[in-house]
TrEMBL record:
Top-level taxonomy: Bacteria, Bacillati, Actinomycetota, Actinomycetes, Streptosporangiales
CDD domains: PTH
Pfam families named among the record's database cross-references: Pept_tRNA_hydro (PF01195)
Organism of provenance: Actinomadura rayongensis
Protein name: Peptidyl-tRNA hydrolase
SUPFAM superfamilies, alphabetized: Peptidyl-tRNA hydrolase-like
Coiled-coil boundaries: none
């Protein structure tokens, strides 16, 4: 029997008004990965848009929940159950305030660090030991509320590097599917 696919979930909010937001970094990276598989997102009954394909030698299901970010857990659990993916083969790509803009960090498990999308996923799965690709968006300027900051579009300066950063995050996802976490961390944490 073939190994289970990897389930790669990008977090974001649905709709064109959110497309350029920092909070939608996960969707941006999933669009890059979908391009690499040659697939197009299609609606799935789990309240998500999915692409099934291959990244290198690995079978993957790429998913963008159609729920609000704070309610991502329901669609992620439904997809995990539908595709019978063990939690160790789940990768969640999300924006991260505590990492400088452009930095990519990889980890397994841990807390949600105030990220409501991660909190929803952990609660729905009853497990936090999934892999994370953390896309650094930096801290808000001055006294700006972090919730306001992540729902704003990337700045003009940030957009100059955005495509490159999304490609690097997509490379990190591929590194996680191809080998051990430690090797991927060594490759991406040095930059």
């Amino acid at each position: 029997m073939a190994a289970e696919p990897w389930l790669v979930v990008g977090l974001g909010n649905p709709g064109p008004s959110y497309a350029g937001n920092r909070h939608n970094a996960g969707f941006l990276v999933l669009d890059v990965l979908a391009g690499r598989t040659g697939g197009k997102f299609k609606a799935h009954k789990a309240r998500a848009d999915v692409v099934e394909g291959r990244l290198g030698a690995e079978r993957v299901v790429l998913a963008k929940p159609r729920s609000w970010m704070n309610e991502s857990g329901g669609p992620v659990k439904a997809l995990r159950d539908f595709y019978k993916v063990p939690v160790g083969r789940l990768i969640v790509v999300h924006d991260e305030l505590d990492i400088p803009y452009g930095a990519i960090r990889l980890k397994r498990g841990g807390g949600d660090n105030g990220h409501n999308g991660l909190r929803s996923i952990t609660k729905s799965l009853g497990d936090r030991e999934y892999l994370r690709v953390r896309f650094g968006v930096g801290r808000p300027p001055g006294r700006m509320d972090p919730a306001t900051f992540v729902l704003r579009d990337f700045s003009t300066t940030e957009r100059r590097e955005l495509d490159l950063n999304a490609e690097r995050a997509a490379d990190a996802v591929e590194a996680l599917t191809a080998g051990p976490l430690e090797a991927a961390q060594n490759a991406f944490h040095a930059t």
